Amino acid sequence: MLDIGETFNLAIKSIWRNKVRSALTALGIIIGVASVILLVSVGQGLQNYITGQFENLGTNLIYVLPGKVGSEGGGFAQGPPDFTGSKFTLRHIENIANLGGPVKNAAADNDIPASVSYKGTTKYTTVGSISEAWEQMVNIEVDKGRLITKSDVDLSRNVAILGKTISEEFFGSGDPLEKDITIGDSKFIVVGTIKEIGTQSIGFDINNFVAIPITTSQRVFDRNTIQSIIVQARSKDDIESAKDEVERYLTSQMDEDDFTVVDSSSLLDTINQVLGVVTAALGGIAAISLIVGGVGIMNIMLVSVTERTREIGLRKALGAKPSDILNQFLIEAVTLSLGGGALGITIGWLGSLALNQVFPTAVTWWAVMLAFGVSATIGIVFGVAPAIRASKLDPIEALRYE
Hints:
Layout: H1 4-17, H2 19-57, E1 61-66, H3 90-97, E2 103-118, E3 121-130, H4 132-137, E4 142-145, H5 150-154, E5 159-162, H6 164-171, E6 180-183, E7 186-194, E8 209-213, H7 214-221, E9 228-233, H8 239-253, E10 259-263, H9 264-307, H10 309-317, H11 322-355, H12 365-391, H13 395-400
Parallel strand pairs: 3-8, 5-7
Antiparallel strand pairs: 1-9, 1-10, 2-3, 2-6, 2-9, 4-7, 5-8, 6-7
Helix pairs in contact: 1-11, 2-9, 2-11, 2-12, 9-11, 9-12, 11-12
């Protein structure tokens, strides 16, 4: 019986002699592993981005959303927030802010897609309709000028503050203060800009938005209700009691199904549950190509057995055991799978780095280990049938094979 080292050496030489066939055999595994790494990195990157945005935007925050969004057990209930059916008004926000105790402040938050223009340049972006307390609760800092004040809200002024990105797109390195921009069909005066927050640009990007007073927004866009309310607790220890106070007040004003009160960690958990399912689905879809790659390995190895029938017969005639033949073909299949897996991981990792320039991605160690482990398993599972077939060839019949 040949030792495993010599068997391995024979398997490698066989792979090297048939470079094109070996490359085509491993191609399915390469594509499959690279796809798994790349798609999982997209899902994980999105989760990391959203987590970072929640941390950047503020602490001790509670979100009041319209409709029944989630259950107390952390799962899902009746779907997404019903922004169009919101019953929140400015009076509710004022009363919540005056609850006292664990409640420190409350603010309006309407996010409306709209066109913003300046001297022929038009951008379709998010217009944040806010009350002055919003700026105190969210971690933003003024870059130039000032932020929106209580007087702006009370008098419904046509003033706006710009995020870093949109300010640079409209004004470059110039001074945007006191310049007129058009939001929808109305003129607004730029009174300030905010410092950059974060680096990514997907979904709601606070660097790429315009903020105006909530009362002005209601007049310009003819929307009297509030999409959502942000409440700030006095400390992290007060979050639960603040939620109870807000729920108690809103229950006295409307039906329980008209609102949902969640803290940032609960909201983040719910979002991550959704993204976790999306990530798993993306990985599962990509994994299908791994199965296809495994079937390709089996088919090519079966063809290889047929092509090398006389070689197998000669080796058996010279004393090779069936186990030697089985081990050689199994090693060839596993080597092709592992080599394809390693190359696929490299391609997926490089692809993730390239995609990260425009979209948040993150390659996780578990995705790499899973992809590599699956590729090795595929080599073993799909290499067994050809290896067994080769080991069972009759040496006399094999030598006669043409």
